[in-house]
Write a structure and sequence with these properties.
Length: about 325
């Protein structure tokens, strides 16, 4: 069964049948009902690729992320899928990891599917050199490329992000304002977002008159065999730094610090304050509940899809960068 068969059965032209299938309003209700009745009777399913050729759209968006098991990324993909579905768009998801060659290969794969746009989830797609980002710029010559939580300056690339630097500055300064003076900063990435957070941490030290030292930093490398929670706890056990507050770049790292502090008999927040970042559901699962930064992930994803829909009709109406302000969610691990 194809569109020509439906045309013969109904007596309508293939153009009329096509308009019914594509939801055009330029057909009578009686005609629409007759064509749809035949489609239902014979179980006809339109060929998506052929339909896309006629409409100049596949109604499909490609999404690339580094690791769908990451809580932040998984949540972002969920919000994106939810918003795209409301706009009657399908999605193709590719998990690339962090290797640049795999990223390039997966971008080629997505582009071969004739997608209408590509969404990059996470600042790990902001590479260190312009040459390493060239595969993104090349894709953007054909379709809009949306980047969540990073900045990449290239034509037809549109960035939606939280001001992570200001957010980390604010939560660090707030913590230090409660009388703390010996912070430890725990992080697990060297991505664009991570660098912004570290810069915000240092900004807050300067603002509070505390001299920065590399001894304040505790890097927790990713380990597929252990969670970041375990990694943070283990790193603190091995380093045993002297501290009265922990500023973490991610909630799981903060939860690991909390677990370590409690094992050492520290009172929280009397002896040590602990803060996370992302305001994930982990915060309310901790005991005591964890103070964190709400970096407005749902808002970022909703705005990303909204901007994309606007781009399809009016490219000049969307700015290259849309930046949102985070919010501190105070709970029981700080005063």
């Amino acid at each position: 069964m194809n569109i020509y068969d439906i045309s013969k059965i109904t007596g309508f032209s293939t153009a009329t049948v096509s308009r019914v299938i594509n939801g055009s309003s330029n057909v009578s209700e009686k005609t629409r009902e007759k064509v749809l009745a035949v489609i239902e009777e014979y179980g006809y399913t339109p060929n998506v690729f052929a339909r896309g050729l006629g409409l100049n759209t596949m109604k499909t968006i490609g999404i690339m992320c580094t690791d769908s098991s990451d809580r932040y990324i998984a949540q972002a993909v969920y919000y994106l899928e939810e918003n795209l579905r409301e706009q009657n768009y399908d999605l193709i998801l590719c998990c690339t990891g962090h290797d640049i060659h795999v990223k390039q290969k997966q971008m080629k794969l997505i582009m071969s599917k004739r997608v209408d746009a590509v969404i990059l989830v996470g600042s790990s797609y902001v590479e260190e050199t312009e040459e390493m980002c060239s595969y993104i710029a090349e894709a953007a010559r054909s379709v809009p490329v949306m980047l969540i939580n990073g900045i990449l300056n290239a034509p037809n690339v549109f960035c939606t992000l939280c001001d992570d630097r200001s957010a980390m500055h604010d939560i660090t300064r707030y913590t230090l304002s409660t009388g703390r003076s010996r912070p430890v900063y725990i992080y697990n990435s060297h991505s664009y977002s991570s660098k912004q957070k570290l810069a915000g941490f240092r900004d807050a030290l300067d603002a509070c008159g505390i001299a920065y030292s590399d001894d304040m930093l505790l890097y927790v490398p990713s380990d597929p065999s252990h969670s970041l929670l375990y990694g943070a706890k283990k790193a603190l056990e091995e380093r045993r730094p002297v501290f009265d507050c922990v500023i973490a770049s991610e909630d799981l790292l903060a939860a690991g610090a909390l677990k370590y502090a409690k094992a050492q008999g520290m009172r929280i927040p009397e002896d040590v304050s602990i803060t996370g970042f992302n305001d994930s559901d982990i915060c309310e699962c901790c005991d005591p509940e964890l103070t964190s930064v709400d970096n407005k992930l749902e808002t970022l994803c909703t705005q990303c899809v909204s901007s994309l829909m606007t781009l399809f009709s009016d490219r000049s109406a969307v700015p290259a960068q849309t930046v949102f302000t985070a919010e501190i969610k105070k709970r029981d691990t700080t005063f």
